[in-house]
Design a protein that fits this description.
Number of helices: 6
Number of domains: 1
Strand content: 25-35%
CATH architecture: 4-Layer Sandwich
Oligomer: single chain
Shape: globular
Number of strands: 13
CATH class: Alpha Beta
CATH superfamily: Carbon-nitrogen hydrolase
Order of helices and strands: EHEHHEEEHEEEHEEEEEH
Radius of gyration: 17 Å
Structural class: alpha/beta
Strand order of the largest sheet: 5-4-3-2-1-13
CATH topology: Nitrilase/N-carbamoyl-D-aminoacid amidohydrolase
Helix content: 10-25%
Distance between the termini: 25 Å
Length: about 260
C-alpha cells in the first residue's frame, strides 16, 4: 500500500504555545492534497526550551487536545514532540495521534547533554513501533539520530520490525552535515524509509537551525525538494511494494547480527 507523508518545516515562536498552534493550524489547512501522516518538528509548540517546569503540559492539556482535533479534521496522523509532565517527571515526548483519536507516545531516549537537556528532562526507556495502514513506523527525536543501535531494525525474524523511521528535530545549523549524512545512513543500514523534520530559524538561545528536512528511500536517495532555511511544506508518496521488493532483491537483514532491543 502506498502512503502519503507530509513534512512541515517551520520557524517556531519561542515558548509561545498559542502562536505555534495557530501557525500550524494554518499550515495544515493549506496542505493542498490528501495526506496520511503530517510530521512536525521537535517541541513544535514551544521550541527546544529547557524551561520544562514552566512549559510542561499533561496528556490532557491544550496541545494534545489540539493534535487530536487537528488529526480528525485533516483525516491524517499528526506527529511531533512537546514537553510533558507525568508523575513529577518531565519528558520530551513524541505524540502520534491518529484521526480516530487513538494515540501513542515515545519519550526521547538520548537527551542532548551539550544543551543540558539531561538536567531538565527524564530519559525514555522504550522504543515505539506503530502499525498504521499496513505500515510499521518507528518515531524518534533529534539526538536519537546519533545512536544507530537504538534505531537498529530487527534482524531476528523474516519481517523487519519497522518500515519507516521518523526523526523530529531542532537540529542546529552548525551540524547540518551530520544531520543529513546520518539520516541517509539510517535509511541504508536499516533498509527503510527515513523522514527527518527539522525546524528553521533562531531559537531563544540564539541558536540557528536551517531545516534540511528530508524524506529518504531505503537506497539512501532523497525524495524531497525542501529548500534550506525556508518555511516549507511537502508531501511525498511512499511505496510499501517498492520497499518490500528491494528487501527481497537485496536481503541484507538476513545476514545481520542477532541481538535484543527493548520495544
Amino acid at each position: 500500500m502506498d502512503l502519503k507523508v507530509t513534512v512541515i518545516q517551520s520557524d517556531l515562536h519561542w515558548e509561545n504555545v498559542d502562536e505555534n498552534l495557530a501557525m500550524f493550524s494554518k499550515k495544515i489547512d493549506a496542505i493542498s492534497e490528501p495526506t496520511d501522516i503530517i510530521v512536525l518538528p521537535e517541541m513544535f509548540n514551544t521550541g527546544f526550551s529547557m524551561h520544562s517546569e514552566e512549559l510542561a503540559e499533561t496528556m490532557k492539556g491544550k496541545t494534545v487536545a489540539w493534535m487530536k482535533e487537528t488529526a480528525k479534521g485533516a483525516d491524517a496522523v499528526i506527529v511531533g514532540s512537546l514537553i510533558i509532565e507525568e508523575h513529577n517527571k518531565y519528558y520530551n515526548r513524541l505524540v502520534w495521534v491518529q484521526p480516530d483519536g487513538d494515540f501513542y507516545t515515545y519519550d526521547k531516549r538520548h537527551l542532548f547533554r551539550m544543551g543540558d537537556e539531561h538536567l531538565s528532562f527524564s530519559a525514555g526507556e522504550k522504543r515505539l513501533i506503530v502499525n498504521y495502514k499496513g505500515w510499521r513506523f518507528c518515531p524518534m527525536i533529534c539526538y536519537d539520530l546519533r545512536f544507530p543501535v537504538w534505531a537498529r531494525n530487527s534482524f531476528k525474524t523474516e519481517t523487519p520490525s519497522y518500515d519507516c523511521l521518523i526523526y523530529v528535530a531542532n537540529w542546529p545549523e552548525a551540524r547540518k552535515q551530520p544531520w543529513s549524512k546520518l539520516l541517509e545512513a539510517r535509511a541504508i543500514e536499516n533498509q527503510c524509509y527515513v523522514i527527518g523534520a527539522n525546524r528553521i530559524g533562531e531559537d531563544g538561545n540564539g541558536i540557528p537551525c536551517s531545516g534540511n528536512s528530508v524524506i529518504i528511500d531505503p537506497k539512501g536517495e532523497t525524495l524531497t525538494n525542501i529548500p534550506e532555511d525556508k518555511n516549507y511544506t511537502e508531501t511525498v508518496n511512499l511505496s510499501l511494494e517498492e520497499l518490500n521488493s528491494f528487501r527481497e532483491i537485496f536481503p541484507v537483514t538476513k545476514d545481520g547480527d542477532d541481538f535484543e532491543i527493548i520495544h
